[in-house]
Amino acid sequence: MAAYLYNFGKFVQWPAEAFPNANSDLDLCLYGNDTLGSAADALNGKNAHGHRIRTNRIRRGGNLEQCHIVFVSTSEQLYVQPLLDLTREIPILTVSEIEDFAEAGGIVGLTFHSNRLKFIVNTGAATRAGLHLSSQLLKLAIDIIEERSP
Q1: Largest CA distance in the chain
Q2: Cβ-contact 121, 134 below 8 angstroms
Q3: Looking at the chain, which runs of residues are DSSP E strands?
């Protein structure tokens, strides 16, 4: 799963204002119970769009402002809607394996399909967040939700 997060970082473009400067880190935040452990830590220092990846662990209610990618643990299923409301128009790529995550307004929902990890993309949520998803990423998605604006 950590490899997916790394690749999402390579195939998503953030607006320039999402980074304090051109050399800033790309912050990958693990929100809730850490299910990725050392696999996520192995991403530290890797490069995505000229930014070094830095992994952070954040508890419920923690500050997400420095995050570029937030992986929401299934431990947060009961609290996911307030989190999505909070990040709705902020350039944060939200990713989770919580059921119906993309349908609820998350940007990337991970799911198992034929015993393989696949993903669903909510392009409306990405647009609202100011993120550009590459056509390569969209081609790999098993479903694309073109959510209407509220």
Answers
A1: 42
A2: no
A3: 12-13, 26-31, 47-48, 51-58, 69-72, 93-96, 108-113, 116-122, 132-133, 143-145
Which of 11-15, 23-27, 31-35 has the least mean pLDDT?
31-35
Task: Provide the whole-model pTM.
Answer: 0.93
Averaged over 14-27, what is the pLDDT?
Answer: 94
- SS3 of residue 116 by DSSP: strand
How is the chain split into domains, by residue range? Answer: 2-14+32-145
Rounded to an integer, the average pLDDT of 75-101 is: 95
CA distance 49 to 19: 12
